[in-house]
Design a protein that fits this description.
heterodimer; A: 248 residues; alpha+beta; Alpha-Beta Plaits; 3-stranded mixed sheet; two-stranded antiparallel ribbon; B: 113 residues; 4-stranded mixed sheet
């Protein structure tokens, strides 16, 4: 297996499904992407005058509202414990992944013709990383580990960004995250994974005091206590990168 | 509708029915985004036009070549995606063995719920 070099790493992510992805996303006649319009609507960002005035964006938002209303209506009164809010969220999740499914990734053996979409796989792997207490997963990019045909069969390489509690040694924590991601890729998906690159992009105070003193203060305090002298986020990243370089 | 198109649509209906019945399949990729797309861009589709079920595409390179079937499924979260995808492939291949020998089946897991 090739050594990890910077040149081989997938570029920094913009979340699942970057702009260069093949996508089912729709560009409206006004130039906006349908997914962006929906996200703005869901985020409650209605202070954009374009969204209010543009007939194409308005029509797209109306469709979204109609779907939401239809889902809520379909669920209402069906069962006493029916959670219409959760159902709506799940339906919208399906719609969102249809718009930005990401690239197809190979499932199973090389000679099989079975695939999983990157957005769904990334969702599962992020969730697996977050089963480690205190870990928050960010961007997750999954790429073929080998260059070759398109779309390529064969194992993939996962690049996952995480925010972790500052509980040294961070290498052990990163290794636990890597194991969970490997485990989920195998058990929940059946996605052959060659490498999992865990990038620690930030650290939080494990005591939850960051709101009071901020991450920097927490880091300084913990850094003084850390047996390996973790002094800054930069040092954390460097240690992490060094570890990745040693990966088999 | 031509006889070839009718035959293709019948195959697509069979594929959709068989795939949806496989344990672990929540539903076929519903094509909700397609509904939005067509209405946003051009208004409702013309009446009378029949479409293959969303999530199933049936085609063949030539009039006598082998059929190619592409199935996109949404799986249940508590099932392994690979296991479900293999079961769908085997079920579809088996169901079409008489009507479309040598069929090539591609299965894509689009989401989990």
């Amino acid at each position: 297996m090739a050594m990890n070099t910077g040149a081989e790493l997938p570029g920094p992510g913009t979340g699942t499904g970057g702009a260069e992805e093949p996508s089912d996303d729709e560009r409206l006649a006004c130039g906006r992407l349908l997914s962006e319009v929906w996200e703005a609507r869901e985020d409650g960002a209605d202070d954009d005058p374009h969204l209010r005035e543009c007939p194409y964006c308005s029509a797209a938002v109306r469709q979204l509202d109609l779907l939401g209303a239809a889902v809520r209506e379909a669920g209402a009164g069906r069962e006493p414990e029916w959670d219409a809010g959760a159902l709506t969220e799940r339906v919208m999740d399906v719609v969102r992944l249809e718009l930005r499914p990401g690239r197809p990734l190979p499932l199973g053996e090389r000679e099989e013709d079975l695939w999983v979409r990157e957005a769904m796989a990334a969702k599962a792997l992020r969730a697996a990383a977050e089963t480690v207490p205190g870990v928050r997963a960010g961007s997750c990019r999954i790429r073929p580990a080998e260059s070759g045909g398109s779309p390529a069969r064969g194992p993939v390489r996962v690049r996952l960004e995480v925010v972790v509690p500052l509980t040294p040694p961070l290498r052990d924590l990163a290794e636990r995250i890597r194991q969970r991601v490997h485990g989920a890729a195998d058990e929940a998906l059946g996605l052959p994974v060659a490498d999992v690159d865990v990038h620690i992009t930030d650290v939080t105070d494990p005591a939850g005091a960051e709101e009071a003193q901020g991450p920097r203060g927490a880091r300084d305090t913990q850094g003084a206590q850390a047996p390996q002298g973790v002094e800054s986020a930069r040092g954390v990243q460097a240690a992490q990168d060094a570890e990745e370089g040693n990966q088999p | 509708m031509t006889a070839a198109a009718a035959g293709r649509d019948a195959l697509a209906d069979t594929v959709a029915r068989v795939a949806a019945d496989v344990p672990g399949v929540a539903f076929l990729r519903p094509g909700l985004a397609d509904l939005f797309r067509s209405s946003v861009r051009t208004g409702p589709p013309a009446a009378g036009g029949r479409r293959q079920p969303a999530g199933v595409r049936v085609s063949r390179a030539s009039g006598s070549g082998p059929w190619e079937v592409d199935v996109q499924i949404v799986v249940r979260r508590d099932h392994r995606a690979l296991t479900v995808a293999r079961a769908v492939r085997d079920a579809v291949t088996g169901a079409l063995a008489g009507k479309a020998p040598g069929v090539q089946v591609t299965v894509t897991v689009a989401n989990a719920v």
